[in-house]
Amino acid sequence: MCGRLNVSDDPFVRGLYQALGFAEDIHFLHSRFIRAAAPVSIVRSDRQHGRVLQTALWWLLLDKTEQGFKPGKYTSFNSRYDKITQPGSASYLPFKQSRCVFVVRGFGETQVMPDKRTLYHDFIGDQCGLLLGGVCRSWRHPNTGEEQWSCSVITLPPHPKLAPYHSKSMPLILPQQGDWLEAWLDPTLTNIQPLLPLLTPALANNLTAVPIDKPGSFTPVGEPFSIPADA
Q1: What are 9-48's pLDDT values in tens digits?
Q2: Rounded distance between C-alpha atoms, residue 96 and residue 89, angstroms
Q3: Is 230 helix (H, G, I), strand (E, B) or coil?
Q4: Do strands 78-80 and 147-156 pair parallel, antiparallel, or not at all (unpaired)?
Q5: DSSP labels for 194-212?
Q6: Which domain holds residue 108?
Q7: Cα–Cα–Cα angle for 84, 89, 95, nearest 5°?
Q8: For residue 158, what is the domain's CATH number?
Q9: Which of 221, 19, 36, 32 is nearest to 131 (CA)?
Q10: Among 92, 135, 158, 196, fewest CB within 10 Å belongs to which?
Q11: Measured between alpha carbons, how far is 6 from 147 in angstroms, rounded to an integer?
Q12: CB 17 within 8 A of CB 54
């Protein structure tokens, strides 16, 4: 998972927000290219308000400044699957207490080849949006009292179908069917054992992959191709 999201404002993304219980005219942060450390919209739940659309920095660990917060020096836009279950890791308590969902149209991956070429691919849901599993936390500034939320995407080992395009990891793509999503967003579920099956690489949706020139311009340089969901 290489630090870029496609959050297009289209019917597929809006349809997922409505499926999550939000109004048809919901306002969320959207862009064809959202980079790590930028603000992003996430869905989280708490016991007082239920499901909430939250603006957060896509970087879990923040450093305090004189008047606010900034992304910390340690890279934390991703939280590895083998860290979130380890007591003492930065993502352990958020995984137990404040899981979230990124509603996206797709994500980007980068792969450095043996001949030193760098290949970039964008992946989008095939006639669908995607739900990426993540964790979030809040910060309170001691001087200003400002509350700032931060978040990260949980990453898994690469699925065999995606490994040629990023050999290190893939984002956790949550299934949109069954009771998994309800459990993921349940703020009272602090026993993580029922959620551990989700930390196995899986493709819950059909994807379309597009070779691009570079992340910032995302100009296609090859024909799109399909990557089917797991049976």
Answers
A1: 999 999 999 999 999 999 999 999 999 999 999 999 999 9
A2: 12
A3: coil
A4: parallel
A5: GGGGGGS----S-EEEEEE
A6: 4-227
A7: 35
A8: 3.90.1680.10
A9: 19
A10: 196
A11: 26
A12: no
